[in-house]
Amino acid sequence: MRDFKNLLVTGGCGFIGTNFICRLLEKPDFSGRIINVDTLTYAGNPENLEGVSGRYPGRYVFEKANICEAAAIEAVFSKYQVDAICHFAAESHVDRSIKDPSSFIFSNIVGTFNLLEIARANRERFALFHHISTDEVYGSLGPEGLFTEETPYRPNSPYSASKAASDHLVRAYHETFGLPTTISNCSNNYGPYQFPEKLIPLVILNALEGKPLPVYGDGKNIRDWLYVTDHCDAIWTIMQAGDCGETYNIGGDSEIQNIAIVEMICGILDEIIPSRDGRTRRELIAFVADRPGHDRRYAIDFKKLNRSLGWRPRESFQTGLRKTIQWYLDHRPWCERIKTGEYRQWLREHYGQA
Q1: Which long-range contacts (CB under 8 A, 24 or more apart) does 340-343 make?
Q2: Which residue in 56, 80, 195, 250 has a CA-CA distance of 20 to 30 Å to 97?
């Protein structure tokens, strides 16, 4: 089992990074320090981790820095004697990559390159570079089969192409320079703290407000869904015991059509909080024009991770979805600050940025 004293987590104020930091600090098999580096783009919210440093004195610090600025990251490496990286930081919303590909190229490719170069320069004390990636690099599946670690890359959006490029860089730095690396490609995550532009939180919040529930195309696109804490546990399992140079797929064993997810959310909300007018929330579903390059189906085969390291998801989609809905119901003030942009005022007050 690997032991990390000073773990750099990039993008730790985002959805999965926030959950990973909270989860890891609770684990009895991790006693090190987490250095959270985030540039605080629109989806990065340090309010998510407010109070963590107080609960874990000396074990959590936050540094506002951009992975695309090598000098800033080098300073963090030197200041904290970083010996491992868990690399979440990325632009990740497909729709945004279609509108503005350039930011995805810089963050996901150049940013990853900078981190690899700095890790290589500090090779004498460096234990592991773990890179978080996506199943979208594999492209679209037909009605049968699963993505495995041997599936050829066929990205269909600027987002997935930029992640594919960063995956190849990580692998190349292991093969060429001997840098200790692992890569994980995960299916669609959901759970607490997810930014409301994503399908599940968007539908939850729109349904609560009686707004239309947009569904792309015919709604029959299929994704494999993974509850975020299951993903975090899988990452930690790989970081502790995964073989260097290897890639591990992480899936939730939950293939579901988009329209079925929207209908499930409507049903659960109707059960918990019936509409005032007595109408079902399914009546809010609105089919919209499909987005360009919309992959039809993703599904992950995670047998390698299960057989070699013993991991499998604990949450079914049904249990995870109910937990997710309840979290958003219990955190309506957080949701409102995100939706209204009020959280940006919090950032201005604390970090002097818009």
Answers
A1: 343/45, 343/47
A2: 250
Neighbours of 9 (CB within 10 A): 25
Residue with tokens 């500090």: 122
Cα diameter, the chain: 66
As a whole number of angstroms, the distance between CA 206 and CA 204 comes to 6
Q: Cite the active site residues.
A: 135-136, 159
> What is the spatial distance between Cα 197 and Cα 43, in angstroms, rounded to a whole number?
10
Give the C-alpha separation, 114 to 73, whole Å: 8
pLDDT in 10s for each residue of the chain, 354 residues:
899 999 999 999 999 999 999 999 999 999 999 999 999 987 788 889 999 999 999 999 999 999 999 999 999 999 999 999 999 999 877 888 898 899 999 999 999 999 999 999 999 999 999 999 999 999 999 889 999 999 999 999 999 999 999 999 999 999 999 999 999 999 999 999 998 888 999 999 999 999 999 999 999 999 999 999 999 999 999 999 999 999 999 999 999 999 999 999 999 999 999 988 889 999 999 999 998 888 899 999 999 999 999 999 999 999 999 999 999 999 999 988 887 776 566 565 655 554
- Copy the structure tokens of residue 320: 């995870």
Task: Give ∠ CA 322-325-331 in degrees, rounded to 5.
Answer: 135
**How far, in Å, CA of 336 to CA of 179, rounded?**
43
> DSSP states of 270-315 as a string?
HHHS--TT---GGGGEEEEPPPTT--SB--B--HHHHHHH------
The alpha carbons of the chain give a radius of gyration, in whole angstroms, of 20
| Cα 250 to Cα 132: distance, rounded to the nearest angstrom | 10
Burial class (CB in 10 A: 0-12, 13-18, 19+), 18: buried
What is the pairing mode between strands 222-227 and 255-257? Answer: antiparallel
What global pTM score does this model have?
0.94
Can you say whether the dihedral through the CA atoms of 327, 275, 279, 339 is positive or negative?
Answer: negative
